[in-house]
Design a protein that fits this description.
Elements: E1 2-3, E2 8-11, H1 30-39, H2 52-60, E3 70-73, H3 74-83, E4 88-90, H4 108-111, E5 121-123, E6 128-131, H5 134-140, E7 147-149, E8 152-153, H6 154-162, E9 169-174, E10 178-184, E11 196-200, E12 203-210, H7 214-218, H8 223-230, E13 269-274, E14 280-282, H9 284-308, E15 316-320, H10 327-337, E16 341-343, H11 349-358
Parallel strand pairs: 1-8, 4-5, 9-15, 15-16
Antiparallel strand pairs: 2-3, 6-7, 9-10, 10-12, 11-12, 13-14
Length: 380
């Protein structure tokens, strides 16, 4: 399973959630993030209200948490339902919950927190957990020998799906949010900009995820409208609109500002077309042009931020996610990035999860994993 690591929940011993999950962009844990700043290493990735650990503190401070048996990321929870083994995660999902991916352990400063016993055992992504539960297999007609593996995050699975195996190639996931990743020999962590690195074999997978993305487009247009309006846009022409397309206040990367306000105004009008004699009709094509350009600017700023922090020079960008299908947007992004941009042969994160299970994904050299957390991903 792959899923956004920032979406988390507490479960009882039967894996029943004790409350609705906290979603990846839920920023209610501001007081808990302040608590973490007092005990975590300076600038640590968990010192944000949207981190898994800040949400862990918030959840465990609510009434009813005394009935909790485990804290899980969404991919962990679904994996546990299939395997019947609760309390297991992987070191990609556990990164923003504070797991030390260099030393492959929960750090001492974290384990002194109340309820730390609810934190999951952490395995290497792709490591075997066990077979599917017999009743689940029977219900869905799945082979009872089906093996359940530890998962990964959605953007890491999307990176694996893209088939990139060398530094210098960026992978942009154009899903509900905008996520950028690059392979790097150097670990790059800059929480002040929302930049972090996942362990990836002998290399590091550096990147960040914006709260902006195609999810904002869904607030205004459906698929048919997006296709029709995109056809009216000249991707070689700049829009005069200066949008920062967020669904609500708060940004993670390349600006880390919990109070950053969306910029979605002014809404352009179509000249000389009266609407009931009282005004002008909205120009949806120009509006979409401004939104797409705003997202492209965020992408360009994201890669510039990674380069500023020491990522390898970017040579080209591969795109996956639903937005990869928009050719007009691709041409716009190519112009703003100043380099080749292409769609990945496989655009779905689920394909990357399948490769991870099969052991057919990239680390530069084989690194055997172990039950204490593993040291790398499966070798191709």
């Amino acid at each position: 399973m792959d899923g956004t690591s920032g979406t988390v929940l507490l479960c009882d011993e039967n894996l029943a959630p004790l409350s609705p999950a906290l979603l990846y962009n839920d920023g209610r844990a501001q007081p808990q993030a302040a608590q973490l700043k007092a005990i975590a290493p300076e600038g640590h990735i968990v010192c944000s209200a949207t981190s898994g650990l800040a949400k862990f503190l918030w959840l465990t401070q609510q009434s009813g948490s005394e009935h909790a048996a485990c804290f899980l990321h969404q991919a962990d929870w679904l994996t546990a339902l299939l395997s019947g083994k609760a309390g297991v995660s992987d070191y990609h999902n556990a990164l923003k919950t504070g797991y030390d991916v260099a030393n492959l352990c929960w750090p001492d400063w974290l384990m002194i927190l109340p309820y730390s016993h609810l934190l999951p055992e952490v395995l290497a992504p792709g490591e075997i957990i066990g077979c599917i539960q017999p009743d689940i297999a029977a219900h869905f007609g799945i082979n009872p020998q089906c093996v359940i593996h530890a998962g990964t995050t959605d953007s890491t699975a999307a990176f694996i799906a893209a088939g990139v195996d060398e530094p210098g190639i960026g992978v942009t996931s154009l899903g509900s949010t905008l996520a950028l990743k690059q392979l790097s020999e150097k670990r790059i962590d800059a929480p002040e900009y929302g930049v972090y690195s996942h362990r990836y074999g002998d290399l590091w997978l550096a990147g960040g995820a914006s709260n902006a993305g195609a999810g904002v487009l869904r607030n205004f247009f459906d698929d048919a409208q997006l296709a029709a309006l995109s056809a009216q846009i000249d991707p070689l022409r700049d829009s005069p609109l200066d949008y920062y397309p967020l669904s609500k206040p708060g940004e993670r990367f390349p600006i880390n500002d919990a109070k950053l306000a969306p910029r979605l105004e002014p809404r352009p009008l179509r000249p000389s077309i009266p609407q009931d004699g009282s005004g002008q009709a909205a120009n949806d094509a120009e509006f979409l042009h401004g939104l797409l350009q705003g997202l492209a600017r965020i992408e360009a700023a994201g890669y510039a931020r990674l380069a500023e922090l020491g990522a390898p020079p970017l040579k080209r960008v591969v795109t996956n996610g639903g937005g990869a299908k928009n050719i007009v947007w691709e041409k716009m992004r190519k112009r703003m990035l100043g380099m080749p941009v292409s769609a990945a042969a496989h655009c779905e994160a689920a394909y990357g999860s399948a490769l991870l299970c099969a052991g057919d994904c990239f680390p530069p050299r084989n690194m055997a994993s172990n039950r204490s957390g593993g040291t790398g991903l499966p070798n191709k």
